[in-house]
Every structure is written in structure tokens, then in C-alpha cells.
Amino acid sequence: MRIRWWRAAVLSAVAALALVYLAGLTRLGGAEAGQLHAVPVLDADPAAELASMRTAAPVTGDDPAAALNAALADPQAAAELVAAAPTADSGELGAALAALDEADGGLDPVEVNGFFTGLGAEETAWLAVLYPSVIGDLPGAPFAAREAANRLVLAAAIDASTATGSPDRPWDDEAGRPARAELAQLIGSGRRFLQLDPYANEGRGSWIEVVGDLDTAANVAVLVPGGSAFLTSDNFNLYHDRAESFVDAAGGALAVVVWAGAASPSGWVEEAWASWSQIAAESLAAFTFDLRNQLGDDVTLTLAGHSYGGAVVGYAETFDLEADRVLHIASAGMGSDVTGPEDYTEPCRARFSMTAPGDPISYVQGMPYVPLLGHGADPDDFPGMRNLATGSLSDAPGATDDTGLSLDDLGISGKTIEGVHSHSEIFYPESDAWKNLLKVLLNEEPDLVGEQPADPACP
To answer: Model pTM greater than 0.85?
Structure first.
């Protein structure tokens, strides 16, 4: 008997959903299989072994900064350094680095930082040059070393992206392939990365970027982007610019880390599934301990998530983490399976939410529970949440959106922030919403809407 077309369509849709569901279970299973590994301990002075490593490297000199600059000026040398991998039979230091690398993130970042503190600042700087692929993506490695290592990772990736020649074309004498645009734009930009993986997310890339000065800022925020957090997406530059607008306005009092260091969903179908956020959340929670350890206790840490990033931040709170404040910005939810503050390790942490009237994200906030689907409770109704006012866009001459376009030219100067476009309008510089977000990031008291959720039972 022939199956009618609509039945076939329904069966195909069900099969597709089943495959996506199984993929989510597989992702979670892989994440749950990880466990913390012991951080190696060096018994001997590594000076002689480090000197041998330096002798074998394609750059020379007594100063790691000079060696770094020499490698950056020589794409072949940068590529050789990025390809270098320590081995367990190369000596005690090499074996320790190999163990750190092979742990693939399954390490306590505080203990890893202790390893490098014991090693010494100059020695660590040299390792960032000699083994950038290890140091640049190693939680707990000193931030300065990770930034230096990722400069080499970037240089090697740009060079590699031009390596495959294009086919001969009679109308074009240029046979070489142009560099990946999203990487080439970074040349000379001064942008700094604690992680830069051009090949993650099926070649679309992932990153963790520092905007501002982590060493001097009294307030540090971790901003988790929404879906499609890829180097190849507009979000790569968009969230940098959004972070920079806050940092510039704070006059040195704020630094922002844009955290897109995990696999990211793309599109509404993938973003409906919770497994992406659950896996990312565990890495994010671990990163907050790394951040706190390297910055100290006097810095106010705010964990902020926009759109799908709010679901990541929300689920991260089901783990132990370091954050003084949590900020949900047009957030998809408080985290998969989260129904109330009692589901968090710290139920009474200060929390703020901003969702403009008519933002389409409101249609997915607080969806009924289905395993692996949806993102938990509605942030705006969550007990203890403080809902922020959104107000209006700036009507000042020269005011722009978050991409630099004139609000006057767009015909929206001074308009109320609401509706479909409010999902992004809350980031437009000098708007009431943007000013309110900045107040939270600076640990100041923001402007609230009139009606607020009830307070949880807190000591």
C-alpha cells in the first residue's frame, strides 16, 4: 500500500528529530565520560631541558618576546612551532606538557596555574613560543602566555588557509588562495585571545577573547554570545564590538571576556536542544575558577549570557562556579531542567534579567519540560531575579546601532525598545537598555521595572 506524501513527510520529520535527539544524547555521554586528571609535578630543575627545546626550535634568541616576534614575522617558523608537540620520552618537562595536553581539558585549572607558577614566568613565556598549540588552549595556563601562544596559532592558521592553490583561471593571474577573511582581518588588530581554534565547530571556529585590561579592571564580565558563535559568523565581530562599547564607556573600570569556547548550535532547530548548552556550561563553570584564581578575590565577576548564551550561563549555575552576579540578556532560559533557585549550587546569588517587550525570545522562555528540549524557567519570572528596564534608544546626534549605522538614517532615533528588533537593540550604545546593562557590569544599582518576582527564601 502506497504511503501518502504527508505520512512520508511526518515519518521523515520524526526520524530527523529522533536522530537529533540521539545526537544530543551522544554529546552528553561524551561530556560525562570526562574526569579530572592529576597535574604533573616536576622533580628536577627544567632549565637544561628547556634550553635543549629552545636549541631545536626554528627561532633563536635569549628573550621569549623577541623569539615570539621573530616567529610571527616568519610564517613557516610559526607553522613549525604550532605543529610541535611535546612527547612523553623527551624529558620530564616534555612529558609533563604532553600529559597536560592529552588531558584535553580534564584538569583543575587552579592546579594547572600552580604548575606554571612553580615553573616561572620566563620559562612559561618560552613554552608559549615553543608549544603554542598546548599553551594557547590550556585552561589554567597564565593568560599572558595564552595570548602570546594564540598569536602564533593565528599566524599559522592564516598561512595554512592560503596553502592550497586555486585552479588556473584564464581571466585571473592570481593562482594563490586568499587567506580566510575572518582570520586575515585580525592582522594588526591587537585583538587578544585566550583560545582561538580556527578548526573547531566543523571548521567554523571557536574563541575566547579579552577586551580591556584584566590586570587593572576592578570589574570583569564574561559575556557568552548567542547561537552561531563561530569565527565565520557575524557574531565574531559583533560581540567584540558590543563588549568594547561597554569597556570604552567604563574608562578602565571594566574588562570583558567574550566566551565562545565550546561547540555552538546554529539556527532555531539546533538551538532548541539543550545538550549544546549543557556541555558548554560545564566548561564555562570551570573557566570562572580559572578567572577568579588569576584575577584575585577583589575583582567583581559578572557572568552574562545573551539569547542562547543565557541558557549556557543558566545551566552553568547548576555546577560550582565563581561569579558575584549573573546577568541574563534576552535569555533563552535559566538552564535545562532548572525550575527554581534550589536547582542551583548557590540559590541566592544576585541575578538580573533584561527582556524587552515583544522580543521573540519570550516565545521560548519557560517552555514546558521535555528531556533535552528547551532551556528551563523563564528568567523574567524567576524567584529573586531583578528585571531591568529597557527604555528607549538614544536620540542624541550621531547615535548608532551596534554595527555603527546611524540611528537617524535607520529612522529609529529615540524609539522605544520593543518588538522583533529589540533582541539586538538592547545593545545599541547609549540606549537606556545599554546603560542599564553597563550598570550591572560595573556592580552598580540598575533601573528596574515596576513589578518584580518574589524573593527566594535566602539566609
So the answer is: yes
